[in-house]
Structures are given as structure tokens and as C-alpha cells.
Fold this protein.
Amino acid sequence: MSAPKRQRQSFIDWLDERANIKPLMNEMLYHRVPKIVNPLDFLGLATLFVFINQMLTGMFLAMFYEASAKTAYQSIQYIMDKVPLGWVIRDLHYWGANAMVVLVAAHALRGYYVGAYKKPREITWITGVVLLFITILFAFTGYLLPWDQQSYWATMVGTWMPFYAPFVGIYVAYLARGGTYISGLTLTRFYSIHMLVLPALLLVFFGIHFAMVLKNQMLVVEEAEKKPKGTKGLVTFYPYTVFQMTMLIVIVAIVLLILALSQHAPLLAPADPLNKAHYNPVPLWFFFSIYQLLKYIPPVLDPLGIVGLPAVAVIVLIALPFFDKNPRHEPRRRPWAMSIAGVSVAAILFLTYLGAINQGIPTGGGSGGGGTVAVVQKPSFKTDIEPIFQTHCAVCHSGSNATAGLDLTSYASIQSKGITKGSTYEQTILWQKLTGKLQPQMPLGGTPLPKTTIQTIANWIAEGAPNN
Ligand code: HEC
């Protein structure tokens, strides 16, 4: 009797007999969920889908990409021109990366808006904040890999940022670059971080994030269940929600594909570390707001803008569930939370917009107020010249292993290198380096110094470069 029955046994039964999956499947597929869901509550799913796109396209790219200063650029060209459909894969990866940053940020904002960071979902929120920063690091490390002018100089600008942190800043900056400036060493470490370190970290934090979502269920589900009987509007997860999710994924996939097919990921001229072509460094778009802000604050506050504000943002985001004890979820009942976030988001968006139409780092390579500096007629080394070198040059030219053996923070070193020697200031190496008469122009990779500042230095040299 039992023999023919067993032959008609389905695969599910076969698996259930061995792995006892039926209770789990029933729980997963037939649990009750709200019938109507705001698409914004699916942003997490959209992000996950785009991440899977990144993983798959990334694996294909890795089959052809060669991470070395000599071959990286050519291998990208090869992918674009020779590999069948290689360009689609790269464009999907590029647009997926941008979409990830936007989607993760939007997902976090939605979570903030509905109050999903509140008890008992604190762990979900904190792991989410970590995932946001992992995403930004993914984009940042990936940006260097094509090794073209844009990626090279954007990374020069970006790895400059930690330099402004007190005490450890310079070590962090050097560690990120693998030296004083961007080289093949930077490339290989960014590549290894991009495809080994970050994916591992992401899987760990996403695992916790997702497990907590399953454990505590989504806020929308919890709220629907609290409603009085008969008005709950609950349906089973399968097929209703599964259908909604599938539709969303199809839409995201179509949008990605349209972007990838209509606009190539950029590939400029190959990276030129001496910047002979005078490429004007542009930071990554999600740093636009920071660099735009720097244009409005005095240079002494630069460290606050570049390191202070982002650090405060991270701390506030992580600590948010602990100092916002208001148990209410409805946005109407949280006027403070809504107004503070509203103003911050509007400010960031506005600064990003201004930064986008007005690209580039502030005049003077990292310090504001460039063009308006007054010329000093009889400059003193201590009060006029040294501060210029400190802000614009010290990141490379300071300390015992300063670039080109030139420590611009020490008068003795400036003397011994003879860069101010010449019968007129036009003949000195220093002046020629600052004006570009002698290539590469200094500050290497930064915006040239304002003419007035160069004139101040010229006046100092004309006075005989005194140590006053
Ligand atoms: C991003 C790193 C970096 C920054 C910032 C930078 N330099 Fe340089 N500098 C270099 C490198 C690399 C060299 C060697 C390349 C060359 O000139 O052939 C160099 C060389 C020089 C030289 C020539 C030294 C010699 O003995 O020939 C002078 C002078 C100089 N820099 C001045 C400056 C001044 C002044 C500033 C600030 C306005 C500055 N540099 C900012 C990296 C930098």
C-alpha cells in the first residue's frame, strides 16, 4: 500500500522528511501581513536587490579587472570595448553603486520617519547605520578602481579628509593611501577592501540586521495587528506580499537597466599622478555638501567641517534610539524629531545641489576664502608664510620623511633645499612650482594657490626669505 504512495511523494515532502521544513515554510509563507503597504516600506528590499546586482556584476568585472597602476585602466577599457556585454555589466555596477547609496539613505530616512528605530528595534537601527557607512566605503573604494583622472583625484581629495582629524589624522591619511600620495599601493589596498573586507563586513551586519527584522517583525505589521478585529486588513504573505515584492523588484531592475543603457559610466584619461593636464579635482558627489560648506566657513574651522560634522553625525545616528525616548511612532506626535531631521535633510540636499552646480574643492585646496586673501607686502615667515605651507602643503611636505625631502614646516629644511634661491623670485624653484612654470605644479593635486597668496610668498622671497 505504501509503495505507490511514496512514488507520488513531492519534492517538498521528500525534503520535509529529512529537514522538517514544512513548519518553517508555513510560518514564512502564510503569516499574516497588511494588505496595503506603502512602497517606501519596501526600500530595504530594493536595496537588497541592488546589492545582489552589485555582487553578480562585481564577480564578472573581477574576472577581467587587473588591479595595478599599469593595467587597471586598460582592463576597464578592455571590459568596455572587447568583452561581450562587458559595458552593460560595468554600467550596471556603476549605476547600482549610486543607487545603493541613494536607496540606503532613503531607507534610513523612512525608518526615521515612521520611528522604526525605537524600542525594540534599536539593534536593527544601529546595524543599519553601520550598513550605510559600509555602503559609502564601497562606493569610495570602488571609485578609484578605473584609475582614470577623475577617480585618481577624487580619491586624492577624499583621502585628504582624515588629515584634518587631530593627532591620528595624518596616520589615517597615510594608511589609506599607502604612502604620501595615491599610488599602485593605494589601488591594491582599495581593491582588496572593496571586494574582500567590505563584503565580509556587510554580510555580518546585514545578517544581524535581517535577523532582527524577522525577530521583531516590521513596524507596519505590528501596527496593523494592533488594530481592532475586522479592520486589520491582513492577508497571507504568499501570494499577496510576494507579488508586491516581485513587482517592486521588476521596477527597480527596469530603472537600473534604463540607466545603464542610456548613460555609460565615465572613463576619462588615464590617471596622471603629476597632473600635467591640470585636471581639476572633484570630490565624490556625496561629499559635495561637505565641500560646499567649507566655502562658507573660515579656514580655521575646516577641521570641524571635514571631520567634526561627519563624526557628530555618526554618533548622533548611532545613539538616536537611546536619547529619543518618546515612545510615539506617528510623525505628527514627534514635532521635534521631525523638524530637526527636516532641517538637516533640507540643508544637506541644498548644499549637495549647490556643490553639484559649482563643482570642485574650495579655492586653495582644502581651505576656504581663497581669492580674497590680501597680499602682504613685507611678510614674516612665522605669521604669514608658515601658515600657508601648513594649510596647503604640510600633508605631503612635513615630518622626517617629507615628500622630496622637503619639510615646509621647518625653516631649516626650506633653506637647505635651496628652493628660495635665485637673484629674482621668478628664478626660485618655489615660485616656479607654485605657478606651474616648473611641472608638476604645487600643491600637487590641489587647486593652485590664489594669485594673492603666491604674491605674498614672492614678496617674502624678494626680501631674501628671512626667518622672522
Ligand atoms: C599631495 C602631495 C603634495 C602636496 C600637497 C604638495 N606637494 Fe610639493 N611635492 C610633492 C611631490 C610628490 C614632489 C616631487 C615631485 C616633483 O616635483 O618632481 C614635490 C615637490 C615639491 C618641490 C620641489 C622640491 C625639489 O627639491 O625640487 C617644491 C618646491 C614643492 N613641492 C613645494 C610645495 C608647496 C609650496 C606646496 C604647498 C603649496 C606643496 N609642494 C604641496 C607632493 C606634494
